[in-house]
Automatic annotation (TrEMBL), chain A:
Compartments, record wording: Cell membrane
Protein name: Ornithine carbamoyltransferase
Originating species: Seohaeicola zhoushanensis
GO terms under biological process: transmembrane transport
Claim: Secreted is one of the keywords in the record: no
TrEMBL record, chain B:
DNA damage is among the record's keywords: no
Protein's name according to its UniProt entry: Putrescine/spermidine ABC transporter permease
Similarity comment: Belongs to the binding-protein-dependent transport system permease family. CysTW subfamily.
Protein's organism: Seohaeicola zhoushanensis
Keywords: Cell membrane, Membrane, Transmembrane, Transmembrane helix, Transport
Taxonomic lineage from the root: Bacteria, Pseudomonadati, Pseudomonadota, Alphaproteobacteria, Rhodobacterales
């Protein structure tokens, strides 16, 4: 069974071609000389130059980055707390409601989440802008963080925590010195997930923002509604590049950690 | 005390920013539209009390949803598009997941990363990529004319076909991953046993592999169907004026027509439609978890 049959080879090739060819075309045409995105007229990097001179895009990118850092950090703290409660706090009044509120935003259509938050912000008289987007993003991304973190919390050996408590740690110390280092990879991937979701979000940001704050997806959306433009291709290429480098680095680090862990385990088994 | 605070902070946050907003949506869906800021007249206020509220309660916006054909056509349109594209995603996703699960061990991590990578890339950009491919002067038409398959360019962009392509493309990883994990866990000796007992490869596939990956198929279908139903970006970038999807209608009701009470009513009904698949999905996940334990 360890050789690819021709059927599997064909379906894998076609499947990955379908997933990647549109991206490759997008990237290729960002280096096109012509303004027409569909006609190749020679290699050029002029659209990257124009992009760098486009104040509106740059300031939108800056706003997006600020929103993403702030909301993903808050979401990581809240999401980790929520995960800890779900896995460790046992029974408390409203537990079912709480876990429902953690899972519901994952399947909620963005248009509904966006609309409901907008109506809330209007209702309490909060000025719409960066703050309201951060609040909105924190709310929907904390649920993703808590799902990622709680799956790690559920699988790890609780006796380690108990040992720390027996040896005189307070609960808070045990969490900081034992639990947190163990769940750290999950917390970091939760943060990364929240960060990308925030960077990427168009719908919720559009609902909850005011005239004072425009994020990159909002800017891109209003530009591409008018049609395809090479500047957007250049911007997309930069974003795809960053993501690709990030994901490959992350997976190499995970692989290295796994190798190291296995080596440590083997060494531990030998000394016993 | 500490335990109380630990629970109270995230609990309070979700109550204030997730649950309360829903009640506001329901409340505003019952109020009347007005030319003011905010653009509606509240139906319920503490001054007039619950008596007046109940007397004036008329579900006017909900009645309007049933009388204007745009709305029910959009609900039906969303359902049809979501069902068809979920089915097509399954047809395309299953062979990919199968190929991944049967690929040599040392390839699998890389294949897995290649499936996940698009998920990290901006959704908007992935949809935008298709605009240049599917347009009349686009690369697909150029390619098909060059090969001589067609002599006239096809109109694909701004039709429902483009919406199907967009949904399949955007949600394919959600279909592939759960099916892959089901197939990966499967004991392949069961297929060998079926073949030894006289099944052809195809019958063995139908009678052994498909039933054993059933949970993955169900999870994948829900993960595609639920977001596709409320989709906004794909129909507004790839669809045309004839593409009626409820996410788009809600957005337009809110941003162009500024009829917030009606937008809220649209949202409430969409939510009611979604409750069924969401509950079914949760139940399926729970059953699977219990089966694993």
């Amino acid at each position: 069974m360890n050789r690819l049959s021709w059927f599997n080879a064909v379906s894998l090739t076609l499947g990955f071609a379908f997933l990647y060819i549109p991206m490759i075309i997008l990237v290729t045409y960002s280096f096109n000389e012509s303004k027409l995105v569909t006609v190749w007229a020679g290699f050029s990097t002029k659209w990257y130059g124009e992009l760098m001179g486009n104040e509106a895009f740059l300031s939108a990118a800056w706003t997006t980055l600020k929103v993403a850092v702030a909301s993903s950090t808050m979401a990581t703290v809240l999401g980790t707390m929520a995960a800890y409660i779900l896995v460790r706090a046992g029974r408390f009044p409203g537990r079912t409601l709480f876990s429902g509120m953690i899972y519901a935003p994952l399947v909620m259509p963005e248009v509904i989440t966006g609309l409901s938050l907008l109506l809330l912000f209007i209702g309490v008289g909060l000025d719409r802008g960066v703050t309201t987007i951060v609040l909105a993003h924190t709310t929907f991304t904390m649920c993703y963080v808590s799902v990622v973190v709680s799956s790690r919390l559920a699988t790890f050996d609780q006796s380690l925590e108990e040992a720390a408590l027996d040896l005189g740690c307070s609960r808070a110390e045990a969490f900081r010195l034992v639990t947190l280092p163990i769940i750290a990879p999950a917390v970091i991937s939760g943060w990364l997930l929240a960060f990308t979701l925030s960077l990427d979000d168009l719908v919720i940001a559009s609902f909850t923002t005011g005239p004072s704050a425009t994020t990159l997806p909002i800017k891109i959306f209003s530009a591409v509604r008018l049609g395809v433009s090479p500047e957007i291709n250049a911007l997309s290429t930069i974003m795809i590049g960053i993501v690709t480098v990030g994901v490959i680095t992350a997976s190499l680090i995970t692989k290295q950690n796994m190798v190291r862990q296995r080596r440590d385990e083997q060494a531990a088994a030998r000394t016993q | 005390m500490r335990r109380f605070l630990l629970i109270a902070i995230p609990f309070g946050w979700l109550l204030a920013l997730f649950l309360v907003p829903f009640f506001i949506v329901v409340k505003i869906s019952l109020s009347d539209v007005a030319v003011s800021i905010p653009p509606y007249v509240p139906q319920f206020s503490w001054e007039t009390g619950i008596g007046t509220f109940l007397r004036d309660l008329d579900f006017e916006n909900f009645v309007f949803l049933t009388t204007d054909s745009l709305y029910w056509k959009s609900y039906v349109g969303s359902l049809v598009i979501a069902v068809i594209s979920t089915f097509l995603t399954l047809l395309i996703g299953y062979p990919i997941a199968y190929g991944m699960a049967r690929a040599p061990e040392e390839w699998r991590a890389t294949l897995m990363m290649l499936i996940i990578l698009p998920f990290w890339t901006s959704f908007l950009i992935r949809i935008y990529a298709w605009m240049g491919i599917l347009s009349r002067e686009g690369l697909l038409n150029q390619f098909l004319m060059w090969t001589g398959v067609i002599s006239e360019p096809l109109t694909i962009l701004n039709t429902n076909y483009a919406v199907y392509i967009g949904i399949i493309y955007a949600y394919l990883p959600f279909m592939v991953l759960p099916i892959y994990s089901a197939l990966d866990r499967m004991d392949t000796s069961l297929i060998e046993a079926a073949e030894d007992l006289g099944c052809s490869r195809l019958t063995a596939f139908w009678l052994v592999t498909v039933p054993l990956s059933r949970n993955g198929i169900i999870a994948g279908c829900f993960l595609v169907f639920i977001p596709a139903l409320g989709e906004f970006v794909i129909p507004s970038l790839l669809g045309g004026s004839g593409t009626l999807m409820i996410g788009k209608v809600l957005w337009e009701e809110f941003s162009s027509n500024r009829d917030w009470p009606l937008a809220s009513a649209v949202a409430v009904v969409l939510l009611l439609i979604l409750v069924v698949p969401i509950v079914l999905f949760q139940r399926n996940q729970q059953k699977q978890q219990e089966a694993e334990q």
